[in-house]
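Thread: "does anyone have the structure for this chain?"

Original post by V.I.:
We have the sequence but no experimental structure in hand. Need at least a predicted one for the grant figures.
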Amino acid sequence: MSSLKQNLADTITTSMKARELERVKVLRNVQSVVKQIELDRQVDLDDAGVLEVLQKQLKQRQESLAIFTENGRDDLAQKEQFEIDIINEFMPKQMDAAELAALVNEEIAAQGATSMRDMGSVMGALKTKTAGRADPAVISKLVKEALG
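Reply from O.Q.:
Generated one for you, tokens below.
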């Protein structure tokens, strides 16, 4: 199986050949962020690291989309939505609410967590189990409700 970085590079090449210039621009932007982080940290990011970068890029664009939509800037909102759609192509299938709730309850039971003091360990375990497949804010909310 090819890595996310290789998949990204291959998609850029394919998009360039198809002359999809706007798509290439978005993909190169994401690729440059990955490379910059690798330079800054002096490491070669694995799929989990690249996935983390993609999640962050996705979150930034979703926040911008909300702001642009709120302020009636449909032109900019469409651009952000286009970029979100492209980045989502590289994200794993998202977990549905029932699946996520079951996983949270399972992890709480497995750790014997009973109070908010246990939230950190539960969140740590869930972060690895759901990497890229669920929004950490949603997971946090579910854990807080369960431990409440």
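V.I.: this helps a lot. The radius of gyration is 18 Å.
O.Q.: and DSSP finds seven helices and no strands in the chain.
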